[in-house]
Specification:
With 110 residues, this protein is an alpha+beta fold. It has three helices and four strands. A four-stranded antiparallel sheet has the order 2-3-1-4, with helices on one face. The radius of gyration is 15 Å and the shape is elongated.
Length: 110
């Protein structure tokens, strides 16, 4: 049946993106998608003009065996200990299909 797959979603400060991208490439991710996003969390206690903070959302499809290393890399490069460092979500993935070739599951990840 093969190894399970996960989708890792990371919301982090945009100024950390370049450094984090390099570190993630070094741990061997197969690729990632980055989107500019805005949102709020605990900082809703701030004045309304600061309610929606600019961040980046990184989405990575990975083999289950890669998840801990990817999460550790994100935390070590993005944690400042200050409010607004971000969040990481690890979600189960049922399938992954490479559009160009039709490759499925693990083969489509890399």
């Amino acid at each position: 049946m093969g190894e399970k797959m996960k989708k890792i979603e990371c919301i982090v400060r945009e100024e950390k993106l370049k450094e984090l991208t390099q570190a993630l490439r070094e741990v061997g991710i197969g690729g990632m998608t980055v989107s500019e996003v805005r949102g709020f969390g605990v900082q809703t206690l701030r004045p309304e003009s600061f309610l929606f903070v600019h961040k980046v959302k990184i989405e990575i499809y990975a083999a289950d065996s890669q998840v801990n290393e990817i999460v550790d890399t994100v935390v070590s490069h993005c944690a400042s200990g200050k409010l607004g460092d971000g969040k990481i979500a690890v979600l189960p993935m049922e399938d992954c299909i490479r559009v160009r070739t039709g490759a499925r599951k693990q083969t489509a990840l890399f």
